[in-house]
């Protein structure tokens, strides 16, 4: 069974995807980390994120980069949203994600284009949403916990800028797949969001 979990920044898609993976005993891939690794590599190599050829060169990143906790930083997320708009960057990361999704036994993937591009054949597709201010509160609390001094206003501005860039790009924009179930977590606890996600997946599973 393939489960696709998409949605904007800090909507709770990663939390839900991990919980679904645990519940159904499936492997999980956070696809955002791949774009964040490209972004961090662009920065380390002092390349230009706006230049497609520069960003493509960074797609051949060192696998150890994926374990760097710095990838979760707010500025890396912003830079990831710049490099991810290049069609050739998306193309460079496509097969790796498709292979993961279509491995034997299935998988759970979260990102922006899982239900639309990576696994349009997924059995269950969730599109996770929450209001920008609630997402900013959650992400701000998360970053503060990790020792970051970034302000709430900065996090909110970054989330709005990223929403705009991710939704308006021509290559794999952030849009719900036509057959995705919408899950608004704005006023749901983590536990309630997970329970709702499991119920939505169950509704897509063949009976018997
Ligand atoms: N329903 C929820 N209520 C409160 N906090 C949440 C909820 N879902 C996720 N969070 C918290 O919000 C932050 C962002 O969640 P995460 O799952 O990483 O979002 P995303 O993967 O969409 O960026 C994390 O600190 C997470 O613990
Ligand atoms: N499948 C994906 C996943 C991430 N991304 C890009 O990578 C950036 C970082 O993604 P992420 O999922 O790690 O970010 P959060 O939603 O966790 O803040 C996003 O803003 C997108 O621009 C993408 O284009 N496609």
TrEMBL record:
Assigned keywords, A-Z: ATP-binding, Cytoplasm, Kinase, Nucleotide-binding, Transferase
UniProt subcellular location: Cytoplasm
Keyword Transferase among record annotations: yes
Tagged with keyword Nucleotidyltransferase: no
Coiled coil location: none
Entry EC no(s): 2.7.4.25
GO cellular component: cytoplasm
Binding-site residues for ATP, renumbered to this chain: 7-15
NCBIfam families xref list: cmk
Protein name as annotated: Cytidylate kinase
Organism annotation: Sphingomonas palmae
Gene this chain is encoded by: cmk
């Amino acid at each position: 069974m393939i489960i696709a979990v998409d949605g904007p920044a800090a909507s709770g898609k990663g939390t839900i995807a991990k919980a679904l993976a645990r519940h159904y005993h499936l492997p999980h891939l956070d696809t955002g980390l791949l774009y964040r690794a490209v972004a961090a590599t662009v920065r380390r190599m002092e390349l230009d994120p706006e230049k497609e050829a520069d960003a493509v060169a960074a797609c051949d990143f060192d696998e150890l980069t994926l374990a760097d906790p710095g990838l979760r930083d707010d500025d890396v997320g912003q830079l990831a949203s710049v490099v991810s708009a290049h069609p050739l960057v998306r193309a460079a990361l496509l097969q790796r994600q498709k292979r993961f999704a279509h491995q034997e036994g299935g998988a759970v993937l979260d990102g922006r284009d899982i239900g639309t591009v990576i696994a349009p054949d997924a059995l269950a597709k969730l599109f996770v949403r929450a209001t920008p201010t609630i997402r900013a509160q959650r992400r701000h609390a998360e970053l503060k916990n990790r020792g970051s001094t970034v302000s709430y206003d900065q996090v909110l501005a970054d989330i709005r800028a990223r929403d705009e860039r991710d939704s308006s790009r021509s290559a794999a924009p952030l849009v719900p797949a036509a057959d995705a179930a919408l899950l608004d977590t704005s006023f749901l606890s983590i536990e309630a969001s997970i329970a709702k996600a499991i119920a939505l997946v169950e509704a897509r599973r063949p009976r018997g």
